Amino acid sequence: MAMKMNLEEVKEVLYDITAMFFHGAAVIWAEQINTKPPLPYITLKIGSIQRTAFPFIAADGGRYYPCQTTLEINLYTKGRPVTVEAHVTGNYANTAAPDLMDFFNFAESEEITDMMAKKGIEVTLIPPVRDLTALLNDSKYRYRAMAEAAVTFVQEADGRYGINGISAAPNSSGGGTPEMAEAVIETIKEVEIKDVTGGGNIDDEK
Fold first, then answer.
1. Non-local CB neighbours of 48 within 8 Å, separated by 6+ positions
2. Left (φ > 0), alpha (ψ -120 to 50) or beta: where does 8 sit?
3. What are 60-117's pLDDT values in tens digits?
4. H helix or E strand, kind and range, residue 91
5. Cα–Cα distances in Å, from 14 out to 9, 34, 49, 142, 149?
6. Beta bridge partners of residue 122, listed in sequence order
7. Under DSSP, is residue 168 helix (H, G, I), strand (E, B) or coil?
8. How many CB atoms lie within 10 A of CB 141?
9. Residues 176/163, Cβ–Cβ less than 8 Å
């Protein structure tokens, strides 16, 4: 069984690998209210979450659901300074799309896929990488590229109330209680069977 994760933990991993590659840029979640940082910067956004109808049942009775979502990543950048005969012209070449493609080459590299696999997460680019550059005024462009990735992970839904896998109870929206999160499913581990022939009792392990 792959390592179980909840969505908040998955988001932390996605943020970390993005910041690991774009170490010279600000990385923010699109849903948060932030002051727009200076270029370059990256925004991340998680899409709808899909979950299989039926869970995997582990040997200990734990329930685990394979889940899938999408990660939308937008890169905003100045681009590459244009030079002519070793002189900077003040203009910038649009490198948004190739710079974002470099990130997915990194995210799907052997080193990163191995690191993600240990956490039970897989990230795969959903082509294409779109160049969404727009003209802000008559003389200035806003260099932007956007792409989506499929993200798969396994979420635990264990316990009597199915919330043993959450990081804290109640959650940030007031859902659940510590008692619910700690409640376990009681299972019968040993059954005593009486020998009707008079030979005594037999313990049958299940």
1. 69, 70
2. alpha
3. 777 888 999 999 999 999 998 787 766 666 788 999 999 999 999 999 999 999 999 9
4. strand 87-93
5. 9, 19, 15, 25, 11
6. 152
7. coil
8. 16
9. yes
Neighbours of 151 (CB within 10 A): 23
Task: Check: CB of residue 167 under 8 Å from CB of residue 135.
Answer: no
- The C-alpha atoms of residue 39 and residue 19 are separated, in whole angstroms, by 15
Residues 6+ apart with CB under 8 A from 113: 122
pTM of the model: 0.76
Cβ atoms within 10 A of the Cβ of 76, count? 22
Type of residue at 87: H
Residue 180 is encoded by which pair of tokens? Answer: 């619910």
- Whether 86 and 61 have beta carbons less than 8 Å apart is answered as no
- 144: amino acid identity, one letter: R
Reduced to 3 states, what is the DSSP secondary structure of residue 99? helix
Q: Classify residue 123 by burial, with Cβ atoms within 10 Å: 0-12, 13-18, 19+.
A: buried
Model confidence over 160-186: pLDDT tens digits?
Answer: 665 565 566 666 566 656 666 566 666
> Which residues make beta-bridge pairs with 116?
none
- Helix (H) / strand (E) containing 153: strand 141-156
Annotate 58-88 with DSSP letters as a single string: -TTS-EEEEEEEEEEEEEEE--EEEEETTEE
Nearest one of 187, 191, 184, 185 to 205, comparing CA atoms: 191
